[in-house]
Amino acid sequence: MKKYFDNQDEPQRDQPTQTSWGTKVYEMVKDMDQVEFGKKKKPPEEGPKQTRKRKRDQTEEVPTAVPFKKKSIFFKYLSYWKTLNTPHAIDCMHLEKNVFESMIGVLLDIKGKTKDGIKSRMDLVNLGIRPDLHPGPPQNGKVDIPGAACNLTQDERMAFLKLRRGIKVLTGFSSNIKSLVSMKDLIMTGYNSHDCHVMLTVFLPIAIRAIRPEYVKMVITRMSYFFNRITQKVIDKVELPALKEFIAETLYQLEMCFPPSYFDIMPHLMMHMVDQIHQLGPVYLHQMWTYERFMSTLNRYVHNRAYPEGSMIKAYTTEEVVNWCMRYIRDGRVIGLPVHHHEGKTSGMGCTGQKVRTDVANRTVQEAHYNILHQLVSMEKYIEKHLEEIHAANDGQRTEAWVQNHHKSNFIEWLKEQHIPLEGCPDEDTETVKRLVLGPSSQITMWQGYDVQGYRFHTKDKDKKSSAQNYGVRYEGEEEFMGQRRQYYGQVEEIWELDYGQNLRITIFRCQWVKLNAVAVDNYGLTTVDLKSIGYKDDPWVLATNVAQVAYYIYVEDPKRHVVVSEKQRIVGADGVQSPEQYNN
Fold first, then answer.
1. Residue 330 — pLDDT band, cuts 50, 70, 90?
2. Cβ within 8 Å of residue 352, ≥6 positions away
3. Whether residue 212 is found in the same domain as residue 240
4. How many domains does the chain have?
5. Domain range for residue 365?
6. d(C-alpha 196, C-alpha 190), whole Å
7. Do 512 and 459 share a structural domain?
8. Which is higher by pLDDT, 329 or 42?
9. Of the candidates 265, 170, 162, 168, which has an alpha carbon nearest to the alpha carbon of residue 210?
10. What is the pLDDT of residues 489-542, one digit of tens each?
11. Does 346 reside within a domain?
């Protein structure tokens, strides 16, 4: 590793014993009661008034022994401020934006944003390190700058941006990523803080596969993993020491790939994020997203630009009064807050492309009905009873495959002969079970889009005409492999809503499932699938409430495969849901 720097051993340094210097800072600024902002001016000289232009040295600041200009107001009103271990939190939102902007500027050599130029290479000359990157002698008035591992070639930039250009995100996941890419200039522009967060934690590890240097791919993936891990809402304290060591090694590896000018204060702050999480808790509790959104709300209150503060106070107090009165109005809706996108839809509701059909083959309807019965918890005891009767009638002389086929062919008719309404238990809705036994109506309602449990699903044909993709699903099987349940990935082809009468409607998806042997995990931890390897054609149905949503993005190293990215369940706040874990359990 020494050859990447100055080929010298670094001096061993002990871990700092003190991390907070609040008391020392307070001793330096405690006597600063009056603050004069701006440049300090020299006292006017006696004599006639000067008519010529003021010289620069007359406005120069007078150096002081204290490197501060004012005392923070927190020292005055918060007596404990000087003893806090973390008086000021590092904003992860702006940290992600600045780190991503610097990295993408170097990788794509964006004019005005790259930090790898002649001055950066001269820093290497002055430091006496990495001689293979030192600029050559000028030729024809131009300086020859050797290419570094972090400098993408024309073909690599084309592949990198072409992948970004072809990204179709899930509805509500982020802004349209392909609108940020300019294939003409081979740059990315116009992204905001949330775009940087999404690209850094999700899409950068996928798109970076387009470049050749394995070491650069590895270190950028490590950095993306770090940001992805620290921005989780739940993080275990036991993981923090290993995570701190992980980011320390990642920063060393970044120094091997990127020029010294890349390492301003922002990459350095990544090292302190783990300590901040240990002191303040998960990152989402002290990020700027909430405050930035609230500032946008206050900005919309301004109708008189001559008095912006007064406009904000008037509108805010008016809204507070109205919200208080709304508590005494039945079915009142709080103003100022948009209605949750999934409000009233958590149990399922079609959203687009409704079509009612009566010409569906009865065999297909019965097949969907059979799968609904087998995926409902209330029917498990009847399934077990029927299988036991089949085994007992054949005395173990039939194979398990024959038993399953016989069960599939006769279960619905057998169920109708059980007089289930007479056997209802106190904890079971016998009327619902009775409706299930009678079977669905031959009139099938089909949808192209369906909202359920905080997800929005579309059929594959619907998404071909859309700028987003919502057709990917993941089903968690019952069998286990290496201590974990098997994951099945598929694509929604049709969305059926079966009517059992008396307001009992059950939605089921018809999917194309990927074979288990077509699912793999690469060396960087990305799950990839081959969507053309179709299997389980005799069992395509799954309940809409039993699947989670995923998205598929092209895998650069093998265009036949796709990378799987799981969607976030956007259900908190809809229909009174407080947490996804509590709702799913």
1. low
2. 447, 448, 449, 458, 462
3. yes
4. 5
5. 361-438
6. 10
7. yes
8. 329
9. 162
10. 999 999 999 998 878 899 999 999 999 999 999 888 889 999 999 999 888 999
11. no
Q: How far apart are the first and last CA of the chain?
A: 49
Q: Is position 422 within any domain?
A: yes
**Shared-domain flag, residues 468 and 412:** no
- Taken in order 409, 410, 416, 418, the sign of the CA dihedral is negative
Closest CA to 548 of 441, 456, 461: 456
SS3 483: coil
What's the pLDDT at 569? Answer: 86
Asked if 134 and 143 count as a contact pair (C-beta separation under 8 A), the reply is no
Query: Which residues make Cβ contacts (< 8 Å) with residue 233, sequence separation at least 6?
Result: 282, 284
Model pLDDT for residues 177-231, shown as the tens digit of each residue: 888 999 988 999 889 999 999 999 999 999 898 888 888 999 999 999 999 999 9
Q: Which structure tokens are listed for 240?
A: 């923090």
Q: Is the pLDDT of residue 350 over 50?
A: yes
Q: What angle separates helix 400-416 from helix 380-394, to the nearest 10 degrees?
A: 120
Distance CA 433, CA 379 (A): 8
Residue 249 lies inside a defined structural domain of this protein: yes
DSSP 8-state symbol, 518:
G
pTM higher than 0.85, yes or no?
no
Could you tell me how far CA 315 lies from the centroid of its own chain?
34
